[in-house]
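REQUEST FORM: STRUCTURE PREDICTION
Request ID: SP-0412
Submitted by: Lab K.M.
Chain count: 1
Length (residues): 371
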Amino acid sequence: MALKTQELVLNMGPQHPSTHGVLRLELELEGEVVTKVIPHLGYLHRCFEKHTEAMTYPQVIPYTDRMDYLASMYNNFGYVVAVERLLGIEVPERVEYIRVIMGELQRIASHLVALGTYGLDIGAFTPFLYLFRDREHILNLFEITCGARLLYNYMWIGGLSHDIPSDFVRLTKEFISYFKPTITELNELLSYNKIFIERTANVGILPADTAISYGITGPNLRASGVQWDVRKDDTYSIYNRFDFEIPVGKGWFGTLGDCWDRYYVRVLEMEESLKILEQAIDQIPEGDVQSAIPKRIKPPVGTIYTRVENPRGELGYFIISDGSVNPFRIKVRAPSFVNLSVLNELCKGHLVADVVAILGSIDIVLGEIDR
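STATUS: Completed
RESULT:
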């Protein structure tokens, strides 16, 4: 006689360590098998886009920090590039190089959090400690530059709030030399761990056509075999001057686009960021980082949409100017928000325990999703 099952609705979160913030997942189950996942958002909503209408253009920058608070430098980067294009101003070469250096350091720091907490989700505690140890070196570089470790307000419209200190280049080169071997250590400790592979390979498979249909970007898209990166394919700043590769998933231990692929693409991206850092730190020119900052920022009437490649994907800023010192409207295309939309597709047919592995592999930040 077959066992009868009853449909069950289970709430995971919003106070749950594996939902990576105040996210509530409404799971519909048949036994242990997931039939549907409904994400419920809004627990961290701060009305960022509405607030900006009451701020001048420079005053908006600290608010961008607080969206994806694990990649604040890149939130600054995307916003100032958008406003500079709206104004039609060019920034000094030194500013461009420092922005790229800070952006790639931020990418590594963000990925270290993503990989460390992902290991923790799966049950591996030691890699979490090691990766946060490595991240501290980057936060120290940020701190000696602008005095902050999480929310920076560093990139300004037309320049930077501070020039890099005299020993920044030396310390960054020391970090690069230190960090390269630790990636090998991470692979030996976690990436190729048998239990970790069995928990992530062939789980949460995201085919390339599905990823494109949902508008997925960043490492989640590249893990499905699509070689798309805004830094190369719709380049901005001075990224076209550097030699680096765009890693994509290969289905190394299972099916292309599974959780392991999404994890490992981020490992490879850290190696590519090191390549960019090595080139940029050697080429950085002299100059004044504040010479192009306008005394008064009042863009002409018009609109602009600019996108950059932040650690979680395509971060876009759509700005409407009415000719005043305040933006009429700012709309943000947040990659975490878009990437989360595919969760239901990934979780169908998997067990409850796999939902944790799948959600962690997407690498979301709730501050960016709710804004």
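NOTES: The longest strand covers residues 302-310.
Reviewed by: T.R.
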